[in-house]
Design a protein that fits this description.
With 269 residues, the chain is of the alpha+beta class. Helix content is 33%, strand content 33%. The chain has an 8-stranded antiparallel β-sheet with strand order 2-3-4-5-6-7-1-8. Helix 2 packs antiparallel against helix 3, helix 2 runs parallel beside helix 4 and helix 4 crosses helix 5.
Amino acid sequence: MPSILIRQRRRVILFTSCLLLAAILRIGLSPLVVLFAIPGIGLPALIVKYAPDLRRTIEATALGIVVIAAMPTPAVSLLTLIPAGSYLAFHVLYGPWSDRIPLRISLLSSRAAKVSAPVEAVWDQLIPGEAEPEHHWTGNLADTMADPDDPMTLHLRRRRINGLLEEMTLTFIDYVADRSCRYILERRTDGIIDESITTFSVDPIGDEETVVESFMAQHAMLPRVALDRILDDFMGDEWDGPGIKSTRKRTWVFHNRDRSPLPALPHPA
């Protein structure tokens, strides 16, 4: 549960902030406002834990609550207006209408870390197919299967937040064992083909310490898909832990949907 909440922290923070703002709009700057932080954290946590497929309703409800709270409506009508406002907000945020606007969004994320482990062990945990699925760093890889027709392609299944398995295809573009690789990860989400590109490089520092560098990118996302990726912390990872020192940099790139493809990704030397 804690790890799921950490990944969904942006939704929890957004909902809590909006609930506190709505309370201030309705009752003013009162000490009672602080009490709204309890459902602000608790309700999203329950949804993430027990109904994760409904997690996008968290931000929709948050927006609906603030909009309705700002309207001069009697308190008794809130029980009716808030669900209606949340329903409308959901379609504003995630409705297909935004697919028609000339805006696409790309996410670039780079990270460097120093890991207290031999380079071979780090490589096995980072790269799918190098070790048993349960040892993969994400903690949610269920199984891997090599493509019989292409040795550079793997078929993966990972556990989604709702516990169901999601099928993906990984294709290596470059591969140097225990040194560097670059691959395309493709999956289908809500009928949309979803591709991301990842580059990893590992360099040993002695026998028991390794420097890891990564670069992840997802290009030309629809606005509603990009919003979902932000709140899901799609490019988050779980490198943080004992013996690991890391830095991270993320960049959002906005561009017209008709723009030519972005430049090739950097590749470790």
